[in-house]
Design a protein that fits this description.
The complex is a heterodimer of chains A (475) and B (252).
Chain A lengths: L15 E2 L5 E2 L4 E4 L6 H10 L4 H16 L23 E4 L11 H10 L3 H7 L11 E2 L2 H6 L4 E4 H7 L1 H7 L10 H9 L4 E5 L9 E5 L11 E6 L4 E9 L7 E3 L2 E6 L4 E10 L3 E11 L4 E10 L2 E4 L2 E4 L5 E10 L4 E10 L5 E11 L3 E10 L7 E11 L4 E10 L5 E10 L2 H9 L4 H17 L4 H18 L2
Parallel strand pairs in A: 7-9, 8-10, 9-12, 10-13, 11-14, 12-14, 13-15, 14-16, 14-17, 15-18, 16-19, 17-19, 18-20, 19-21, 20-22, 21-23, 22-24
Antiparallel strand pairs in A: 1-2, 3-4, 5-8, 6-7
Helix pairs in contact in A: 1-2, 2-8, 9-10, 10-11
Chain B lengths: L2 E10 L2 E11 L4 E5 L6 H9 L5 E9 L2 E2 L5 H7 L1 E4 L6 E5 H10 L10 H14 L10 E2 L5 H15 L3 E5 L7 H14 L5 E6 L3 H5 L4 E6 L2 E6 L2 H9 L7 H6 L1
Parallel strand pairs in B: 3-10, 3-11, 6-9, 9-10
Antiparallel strand pairs in B: 1-2, 1-4, 4-5, 7-8, 11-12
Helix pairs in contact in B: 5-6
Chain lengths: 475, 252
């Protein structure tokens, strides 16, 4: 049984702000699964969400797999061992409609929004004044507009309840539950995320957008997104994440599955700016059928540890997979990112361009996998990974795994490591730029060709985020 | 009003390079510094701009009366000091136009931005003067530029930033005669009674095009001889060996 707490008005004195402008509003959640993860947790979530039996079973099976699977620390960072699964709450939702106004938002936070150039209406949402709360995604007005074209754009819960005939066919098929420990965890406790279906031939003009936000301390967020573009359809999805900074570790583990049917095109754009205590362990993969294109455009800033390797399985002839990624690791942060390209049909093409920036003690790792089996012909892969180091303590590694069998394919791999040298900064400063401005300009230059791949408003935001990061990184 | 260098001593760890250098540049004057390799010419330009490879152990540098030695590199630039680099740095991914805009914006009060229309008008007219193709606005700063193009780009920055005092560090090196003429024309166009120049060079050739008012010989970290532009011709003919330190000779 679940009981609702009394509705409480937000009092300004309840807002916690520290001296760096990080803040949290007090939490009022109607549904709280409590700490730790057990069969009871899974049942609690299934009860609250009124899951159909097959989803409840799916969750229980996933929990078992999660519990049985060891941490992948034989190849991944030991920092994973610091995740204490018992100290998280796995489901929080349906908070009382917060009665708070823009005036309640601390000035420092307003200033940061201002500097990031976040539009007025989004500021209110991001500040927790308006719209959705916690694990349910918020959808823009575009939802109604695209519905006229027959596009389904709902959250994953609505998707599985109202569109089971499409949802069930693809859910968990691109990324099986047991793919890795964190995809299993997500499968056991998922909530939120989007479900999108674009009917044959429909080209969605405007990017579809959803914000996710962690807003409860020690609360793991496990959104689950499934996007299907039917034959010849086209859609771009944008995901932006911000989180206020909390004092204790926060876990985020999403699963995103994309299905591009024959001749379809899906672009998935992410700009993430997690606070530096978040574990961000995400599994993203798409299937591209004949002549289809799946493109991941991914920018990771912040977090304590991000592990994310968007993948494309090129299942049909002439399918194309792309991963364009930017990672920025500041001190205390580890960006472990990359791409997985699995060629499973003739004449398929994949392209991976990854740029990472390591600042101070920050650490960037690139892991790439390209698989082209022997029986195929005419497959092409291009992989470029460039790393930029800023000051001598930063750290970068590249682990490319390219397995190409047969001799009718073409692959190329280029990797470079460069530094923002003292002389480059001297040159820029001699022209009047401050050290931080000189750093920002250098870093923005380094990612410039990739930043153009992002939709306009995201690339502007990206530039400003980098400005802010650089300001904080020079004495 | 002047750029005044008083008894300047500077070193890299273990080796003193500037050993009591005195020099005063008034607005409207063009000073040339010549000297053999290793005499401290490039060091002087970097020390004036605040490069942290060098430690100033004593002396003063006053820019219009204000001691700039405690100022950061960027503050010196904004105070009106410009260095045309001998080896200009490449800034991948940053377009020339964006770079210049950022440099100009850094001179404005916080929150203000430059007028884009005026900026491009000015930029294009100065590029025309330097016979630079318009495509250079969108090309990354110095990336893939020839030696001559880099030097022209330095002069373009000088023309856009309009400093009070400009140091040209071996701007003639790596230039063919046509490029040398174009670059010199740009510099000459910037000569004004409000602006002082310090032209560092190995060769007299540059001074045929940028005619100095005063020529100094730098040797072993000191100005050892000062004269008119005829001194540069004499140096070209006779080399540096005959020049003795006048200040030391006078003391003896």
């Amino acid at each position: 049984m679940v009981t609702a707490p009394e509705p409480v008005d937000t009092d300004i004195s309840d807002i916690k702000v520290d001296n760096t402008g990080n803040f949290t509003f007090p939490e009022r959640n109607k549904f709280d699964s409590g700490f730790g993860i057990t069969e009871k947790t899974v049942d609690f979530i299934a009860d609250v969400k009124n899951d159909p039996d097959w989803i409840r079973e799916f969750r229980h099976k996933a929990l078992k797999i999660f519990q049985d699977k060891p941490m992948p620390t034989h190849w991944a960072t030991k920092d994973l061992e610091n995740i204490k699964f018992d100290e998280f709450r796995y489901y929080l939702s349906d908070g009382q409609k917060p009665k708070r106004s823009w005036d309640d938002v601390p000035d420092d936070v307003k200033k940061t929004f201002d500097r990031l150039g976040i539009p007025e209406q989004e500021r209110k949402f991001l500040a927790g004044v308006e719209a959705q709360y916690d694990s349910e995604a918020a959808y823009s007005n575009i939802k109604a507009a695209v519905a006229e074209q027959g596009v389904i754009f709902v959250n994953s819960t609505e998707g599985l309840h109202n569109h089971p005939e499409i949802f069930r066919k693809w859910f968990g098929k691109v990324i099986p539950t047991g793919d890795n420990k964190f995809s299993a965890l997500n499968s056991a406790v998922f909530s939120g995320g989007s479900f999108i279906y674009v009917p044959p031939g429909v080209k969605v003009k405007h990017p579809l957008q959803a914000y996710f936000r962690i807003n409860s301390e020690q609360f793991g967020q496990f959104e689950r997104t499934l996007i299907i573009a039917d034959e010849g359809a086209e859609v771009m999805y944008m995901e932006g994440c911000t989180a206020p900074k909390f004092e204790t570790a926060t876990l985020h583990s999403a699963v995103v599955e994309l299905v591009a049917m024959k001749g379809a095109k899906i672009q998935y754009v992410t700009v993430q700016n997690w606070s530096s205590n978040v574990f961000n362990l995400v599994t993203k993969r798409g299937i591209a059928h004949e002549d289809a294109v799946v493109k991941w455009i991914d920018c990771n800033i912040g977090s304590r540890l991000t592990m994310k390797y968007p993948g494309v399985i090129m299942k049909g002839k002439r399918a194309r997979g792309e991963v364009i990624s930017i990672a920025l690791a500041n001190s205390g942060q580890h960006q472990d990112t990359g791409a997985k390209m699995v060629h499973a049909a003739d004449d398929t093409t994949s392209n991976v361009i990854s740029k990472s920036i390591s600042i101070g003690q920050g650490r960037s790792t690139y892991r790439g996998l390209v698989h082209i089996p022997k029986h195929l012909k005419g497959c092409k892969n291009n992989t470029e990974c460039d790393a930029l180091l800023i000051n001598s303590n930063s750290h970068t590694d590249t682990y490319p795994a390219i397995s190409v069998r047969g001799n009718q394919h073409s692959t190329q791999h280029e990797a470079s490591v460069s530094q923002v040298s003292a002389d480059q900064i001297f040159y820029l400063m001699q022209r009047g730029l401050s050290e931080a401005e000189a750093m920002s300009l250098s870093v923005n230059g380094f990612i410039n060709d990739l930043a153009k791949e992002f939709p306009m408003e995201y690339s502007v935001e990206l530039k400003r985020l980098i400005d802010l990061e650089m300001e904080g990184s020079v004495g | 009003m002047s750029l005044e260098i008083k008894a300047l001593h500077a070193q890299i760890p273990g080796r003193e390079i500037l050993k009591g250098l005195n020099l005063t540049i008034n607005p409207g004057e063009v000073h040339a510094i010549m000297g053999p390799n290793g005499s401290g010419k490039s060091t002087l330009s970097k020390v004036l701009c605040g490069h942290d490879d060098y430690e100033v152990t004593s002396g003063e540098v006053l820019l219009d009366g204000e001691n700039i030695l405690d100022m950061a590199v960027d503050a010196r630039s904004r105070a009106g000091l410009f260095l045309a680099f001998q080896y200009p740095h490449e800034i991948p991914g940053v377009s020339n136009a964006n770079f210049l805009r950022a440099a100009l914006k850094a001179r404005l009060p916080k929150g203000e931005d430059i007028d884009a229309v005026k900026f491009y008008k000015q930029l294009y007219s100065r590029m025309d003067a330097l016979e630079m193709d318009r495509s250079f606005t969108s090309r990354s700063v110095n990336e893939g530029f020839s030696g001559g193009e880099k030097k022209r780009n330095e002069i373009l920055q000088l023309m856009m930033l309009e400093p009070k005092y400009a140091i040209l560090d071996e701007t003639d090196s790596g230039l063919d005669i046509d490029a040398l003429k174009i670059v010199s024309r740009g510099v000459n166009a910037m000569r004004s009674e409000n602006r002082g120049f310090l032209v560092i060079t190995h060769y007299q050739r540059l001074l045929n095009y940028i005619q100095p008012d005063i020529v100094h010989v730098l040797k072993d970290g000191r100005i050892v001889k000062t004269g008119g532009k005829e001194l540069s011709l004499e140096l070209e003919e006779r080399g540096y060996d005959w020049v003795t330190d006048e200040s030391l000779a006078a003391a003896a």
